[in-house]
Amino acid sequence: MTQHRPDTLSHAPLGRESAYPEHYDAGLLYPIPRAVNRAPLGIEEGALPFVGEDEWHAFEVSWLNAHGKPIVAVARFRLPAQSPHLIESKSWKLYLNGFNQTRFESRQAVVDTLLRDLAHAAGAPVAVELLDVDDAALAVTRLPGECLDDLDIEVTDYTPRAEHLAVGEEIVEETLHSHLLKSNCPVTGQPDWGSVLIRYRGPKLDREGLLRYLIGYRQHQDFHEHCVEHIFTDLMARARPERLLVLARYVRRGGLDISPWRATPGERPPEPLRLSRQ
Questions:
Q1: Given pLDDT bands bounded at 50, 70 and 90, which one contains residue 9?
Q2: Of the candidates 29, 31, 30, 48, which has an alpha carbon nearest to the alpha carbon of residue 39?
C-alpha cells in the first residue's frame, strides 16, 4: 500500500505526472491538515467558529461486480468541517480509478470500503452515497435568493479585501448569490470556477462592496474549502450577523466537484442543489 506524509504538499500527486492505478489502493488518498490554512484566519482547531461539510460528487465511479461486469455510479461524499484533514482532490481521483478493475461482492461492499478509507484519511466519520447516473437527486437546480452579478460596479482589485465589506443599520434576513467566484489551485495555479451563496440575518450588507469582495478571490490561491472559510470569517468579523451560511458550488474538474459550506450552528444549506455548471 502506498504511504504518504499528511503534513506537506511537497509529496502530493497534485501538479505531478501520475500513472493511473490498475488496482485498488487506499494509500493513494492524500490527507492535508486543515489547521495549516486555518491558523492565518485565527481559527483554532477544537474551537471552530462554524459548522459545515465538504460535499463532493464523483462522476467517474466504476467497479466490477462478482462476475466481472462493470457497474457505474455517481458518488456523493460528505466530510465534516471538524475533521482534522481534507483530502487532496487528485489523490481522490487516483484512488477512485483503482476501483475500475477491482471486483466487489456487492454495492454495499463498495460503500463500506469508501466509508472506511475516507474516514481514515479525513480523521473523522464521513457519509457516502452511491447514486444511479439518472437519479433525480442529480437534477439541475438554481441557487435561491437574489443574484449580485448584474450590479454595474468598477473593479480594480483582484485580491480578497475584507474592507470592501460594509453594513448599514437596518437588520435584514436575506439570501444573496453570485456566479463570479473564481480562485486558483494553490499548487498548479489552475482556475477553479464556482458560485457562492450567502444567507444571513444581521446588519444589511452593502451589495456592491460584497460583490467586489467576492470578485477579489479571482487571483487568490487556496483550496475550495479554505476559500469558503475565509469568506465566512471575514463576514463574521466585519458584519457580525446573528446567523450566517456561506456555501460555494465549484465547477467539476477531473470528474469531481466540491461544494463546501460553513455556517453558524443551527444553519444548513438548502437541498438539493446542483447547478448547470457542475
A1: low
A2: 48
Hey, what domains does the chain have and what are their CATH numbers?
A: 26-137 (3.30.1130.10), 146-263 (3.30.1130.10)
Any known ligand binding at 17? Answer: no
**C-alpha to C-alpha distance for 187 and 14, rounded to whole angstroms:** 7
Read off the pLDDT of residues 248-262 as tens digits, 9 standing for 90 and up: 999 998 899 999 999
- Give the pLDDT confidence of 31-79 residue by residue, as tens digits: 999 999 999 999 998 899 999 999 999 999 999 999 999 999 999 999 9
Please report where in the chains the cell 466481472 appears, as a residue.
68
User: Is 83 known as a binding-site position?
Assistant: no
Query: Which of 54, 117, 185, 227 is flagged as catalytic?
Result: 185
pLDDT, position 13? 60
Reduced to 3 states (helix: H, G, I; strand: E, B; else coil), residue 260 is strand
Residue 145 labeled ligand binder = no
Cell reading at 130: 452511491
Tell me if 22 is assigned to a ligand binding site: no
Residue 14: its pLDDT value, please?
A: 55
Write down the H helix ranges in 67-204: 89-97, 107-122
Q: Which residue has the cell 477531473?
A: 254
> Which of 54, 117, 192, 222 is labelled catalytic?
192
147 is catalytic: no
* pTM for this predicted structure: 0.91
**227 noted as active-site residue:** no
| 3-class DSSP state of 85 | strand
The dihedral sign for the CA sequence 176, 145, 170, 260 = negative
